[in-house]
Amino acid sequence: MKRILLAALCIAGAVLLAASCGNSTKKAERKAAEAAAEQARLDSLEQVEMQQKQKEAMATIATLPDEPVFDIVTNMGTMKIKLYSGTPKHRENFAKLALSGYYNGLLFHRVINGFMIQGGDPLTKNPTNADKFGTGGPGYTVPAEFVPEYRHKKGALAAARRGDAANPMKESSGSQFYIVQNEAACAALDGDYTVFGETISGLDVVDKIASVQTDGKDRPLNDVKIIAINLAKE
């Protein structure tokens, strides 16, 4: 009789435990679904806000000089860059993103000393996306604009892009860019990647960022963050 009673109690306990686990799983799934829905709502609001900011930015762009100057403000210093008039599509796109705050808070996610520093991926705002860094963008590309006199000299501002196999027209990323640290190492990129600007002051900051410690994927061990990219004050 005691064995039967004990067995019955064990079965009852197991049923209650299973029910409890089932309820906990359902609660966790419900919370996850609610969190995902809330994040989707926030992402939607952010997208609408960004679209409005970009409309306002376009109005400002119409008043800019042919070769506007911007400050790339980072947590390691400021680089002053000039956009080239001979690459109008890239000039307008970069200015639009900068003026709308698109770059604020993004990282220089790929840094190779003796080569270049790269940033502009919106996925770098969220560290959980670390495995995808370098693959993000605004959802469009920019047609290549190769101008022979715009070379990969030190401080040159150029657009990152996907490789030739997936991108035979060599279209540029909609937002990712890099700044040349070593002219000799980057010279082979001339005519393959669009150069659309240059650093006119702050080359020491380029060197400083290039020299940070990185991991096996060329990602800085300590975040190098773009605080903002603003129109330079005269």
Could you characterize what this model shows?
This protein is an alpha+beta fold. Helices cover 36% and strands 19% of the residues. It contains four helices and ten strands; from the N terminus they run αββαββββββαβαβ. The strands form two sheets. An eight-stranded antiparallel β-sheet has the order 3-4-8-6-9-2-1-10. Strands 5-7 form a two-stranded antiparallel sheet. A hairpin with a 3-residue loop joins strand 3 (110-112) and strand 4 (116-119). Helix 1 (2-61) packs across helix 2. The longest helix has 60 residues, at 2-61. It starts with a helix and ends with a strand.
Topology:
Layout: H1 2-61, E1 69-74, E2 77-83, H2 88-99, E3 110-112, E4 116-119, E5 141-142, E6 156-159, E7 172-173, E8 177-180, H3 183-186, E9 195-201, H4 203-210, E10 226-231
Antiparallel strand pairs: 1-2, 1-10, 2-9, 3-4, 4-8, 5-7, 6-8, 6-9
Helix pairs in contact: 1-2
Helix content bin = 25-40%
The tally of beta strands, per DSSP, is 10
**SSE-based structural type:** alpha+beta
Strand order of the largest sheet: 3-4-8-6-9-2-1-10
> Mean pLDDT, rounded to whole units?
89
Distance between the termini: 94 Å
Number of helices: 4
